[in-house]
Design a protein that fits this description.
300 residues, 4-stranded mixed beta sheet, binds iron/sulfur cluster
Length: 300
């Protein structure tokens, strides 16, 4: 089995108490079976505290406290489970976040999701073109899989061609993958407002996009940062074409995401790009339903 990850992956560290948008606030935290069994059997005060904060719903999850905080997130925004028992005590979802995984025959790809503040800052801080690191052996060669990987490699090469402007790279990427030209992101405001949304701030931003997006100033952000975002969206979503056979919508989504963030940065120059990317990721990328709507809209 091959395990693949972007070269920046090992450098990720959770910024814990310094995180302004902790993943331990506002998200339901489901508990996997193995962790649940461990929590049920745990002796002492920590075991009692664990059991009194678990809802036995389907799936079982921690009961969020005031402000939708995880009951184990203390006043310093640090995790009491880690402090008292170490990382081994975390349930699977907490141990994994913000990692995502894509599976292909004989190959698992791991990455860091942009909805994590620490991951977004790390990805956008990169100045060199991102490369992929592979560990293990390819014990299940598959021609179809390799054709998809080859096409994605070509897509990466276009996205990282620093002799071209970002607009030219996006055009070339869409041509390479026969992707749908998404047009101006302001024309997508109605679609975005139909999606499941988490935060009223995001709603207000999309409404402003609809009103003023087409006259938004060009943001002062370097091409390198846009490149890192484009590569991120390709890395995270391109291989999902393995399931539906449609690479065009995945390339279209990467270009759409980039243009939308560029437009939002023009409308909100005071907000850091990493924060805009984090919001977009939390609102759109972390909902399978939302992604499905956008992929479908982007199918030719
Ligand atoms: S969002 Fe990322 S940086 Fe923030 S607490 Fe969660 S894992 Fe850590």
């Amino acid at each position: 089995m091959l395990t693949v990850y972007p070269d920046y992956y090992p450098a990720f560290r959770c910024i814990a108490g310094d995180c302004r948008h902790s993943c331990c606030i506002g998200w339901e935290i489901d508990i996997d079976e193995e962790s649940l069994a461990k929590y049920k059997a745990m002796p002492g005060p920590l075991g009692e505290r664990l059991r009194s904060n678990i809802s036995a719903g389907d799936p079982p999850h921690f009961v969020l406290g005031e402000g939708e905080r995880c009951p184990f997130l203390n006043r310093c925004n640090l995790c009491d489970l880690i402090l008292e028992g170490g990382e081994a005590l975390l349930c699977q979802i907490c141990g994994d976040h913000p990692r995502f995984r894509n599976f292909l025959p004989g190959r698992t790809e791991i990455g860091l999701g942009l909805c994590c503040e620490g991951a977004a800052a790390l990805i956008l801080s990169r100045t060199e073109p991102v490369t992929l690191v592979a560990e293990g052996t390819d014990d299940a060669p598959d021609r179809e899989r390799d054709a998809l990987l080859d096409l994605r490699q070509q897509a990466f090469a276009v996205a990282q061609d620093r002799t071209l402007s970002m607009d030219a790279r996006c055009d070339r990427l869409l041509r390479l993958c026969h992707g749908c030209e998404p047009g101006h992101p302001a024309d997508w405001a109605d679609v975005l407002l139909e999606l499941e949304r988490l935060d009223d701030t995001w709603t207000a931003m999309v409404e402003k996009l609809a009103r003023e997006g087409k006259t938004a100033p060009i943001p002062a952000v370097t091409d390198v940062e846009w490149e890192q975002l484009l590569v991120y969206f390709l890395y995270r979503h391109f291989l999902t074409a393995w399931e539906d056979g449609d690479v065009g919508s995945k390339a279209g989504f990467a270009v759409f995401s980039l243009r939308l963030l560029r437009c939002l940065k023009g409308l909100y120059p005071q907000i850091e790009l990493a924060e805009l990317a984090r919001m977009y990721s939390a609102e759109v990328e972390y909902s399978t339903e939302n992604l499905d709507v956008l992929f479908e809209e982007l199918m030719i």
